[in-house]
Structure formats: C-alpha cells, structure tokens
Amino acid sequence: MVKIPNVKLANGVLMPQFGLGVYKVEEGKEVENVVRNAIQLGYRLIDTASFYDNEEGVGRAIEQSGIHREELFITTKVWNDDHGYEQTIAAFKKSLKKLHLSYIDLYLIHWPMPKKYKDTWRALEYLYEEGLVKAIGVSNFHEHHLEEIKKDANIMPMVNQVELHPQLSQQPLREYCWSNNIQVEAWAPIARGELSKEPQFVTLSEKYNKTVSQIILRWHIQNQVIVIPKTTKLKRLEENQAIFDFALSDEDMSVIDEYNKNKRMGKNPDDL
What we know:
Layout: E1 6-8, E2 14-16, E3 19-21, H1 29-41, E4 45-47, H2 55-65, E5 73-78, H3 85-99, E6 104-109, H4 117-129, E7 133-139, H5 143-152, E8 159-163, H6 171-179, E9 183-187, H7 199-208, H8 212-222, E10 226-227, H9 234-241, H10 250-257
C-alpha cells in the first residue's frame, strides 16, 4: 500500500497531501464504489461538498470501509445559498448528518460570496471552537478575500482550495498563502485532461515512463500542494496514486512552472 505524505496545518493537524475529489460523482452506487475502492487502495483524504449532492453516499462508503474513523480525513463545504452565521451552522449540521459522522476533519467556505463570507467565517470559527471540526478553511479565495478575513478573524483559514494546474499555476496566491501559514489545495489539478497531448508534457511522460497525469500530479506534490484528482475508475485511482516512486528534476519542474497561461476552467471568484 502506498504511503501518502502529510502536510501540517497551522494548528498542528496532519492532512494527507493526496486524496480523492468527488465533484460530479453520482450519488448512490457510483460514489459509494469509488470511495470504498479508494480507501481500500490507501486513500485517506476524501473531499466532498454539500453542492455535490453525494455526502450520503460518501458516508455510507466510509461506514462500509472498515477503516477507523480517525484514520480518514474528510472534507466538506458550505454552499453559496447557506452563507451567514446561523445558516452556516445549520448547513454544517445537515452535512454532518448526511455523512453519518460525529465530526468533520476540514470544513471549507466553498466560494467567497460578496458581503456574506465574513459572517460565514465566524460560524466556522464557532464550529472549530466547539470541536465539531478539526480544521477550517476556504475555497476559491483570492488574496484580497483572505485579507478581509484577516481583519476580524480570531483564527485564520488553514487551507485554501483553489483551481490550480499548469495552465493556472497561481504562483502569487500560493506564495501569499504560505507566507500566512495557509496550506494550498488544488482542484482540477490535471486540468481535466486538457494537457494530455501537449508536447512538453508528452516529452516528460516519455522521459519518466509515467502518464501525463502522473507527471502533473507529481509537479503538485513537489510544489507542496495538496491534490484531490477526481475519477470513478479503479485503474485511474491506482494510476493517480502511483506518483511517489519518482521525482521530477528541478529543470523539469521549471518547464512545467513556465507553462502557466493564467487560463481558468472554472469561474473567477471575483465574478460571483
């Protein structure tokens, strides 16, 4: 079984650097099967959200896995419609019930809804102080959103999960986060397969005898970024995880670093 490294969050909690994202994985058998298979392969970080509408299936898979709860790291998120102090606490309780868990490892604000996310952050602080979550953070926050949080926060976000891949390397945001003791987590880490035929990546794939996806995931790992590639296929679960038996050279890391095109696949958080 592959040994997955951890990163240490600002409060000392250890979070796996590699895991499974379940965005657009269908509720029911599909999400149950992929989460159960992932856990059997050694995945310990599972990332879902209320918006994904599959928390119940994730919860069932966790129950069926036979793995002690303390060995798993479960993330979920509060959706845009549930921003606000009381609304966020109510949304959290719904997620907790759907997941059949007594606590969440990491609870995130999914998007920085204008004029609302600071009240939502106060609710996350409350949930953390009550011991209902082990760590709290945000998703899709720019530097200026984090600066707004900083003005009033008792606790700063411990994680910022953002769109991050070679086409959108987010270098300034990454540096800001790390300078503020915020771990960076990538969604769409392999750019949804868009780079599979790009010459630079094909060349690296041939050099290391790894797939383009594995090359990109390894680039994230060496950049100290947390990654949660999504798949529903057992073969891809195995392939995505097989990135800890090689290392990219500094020169090849630079090749990927320089590919950045500031090209988004999702929304710019400022356009909400």
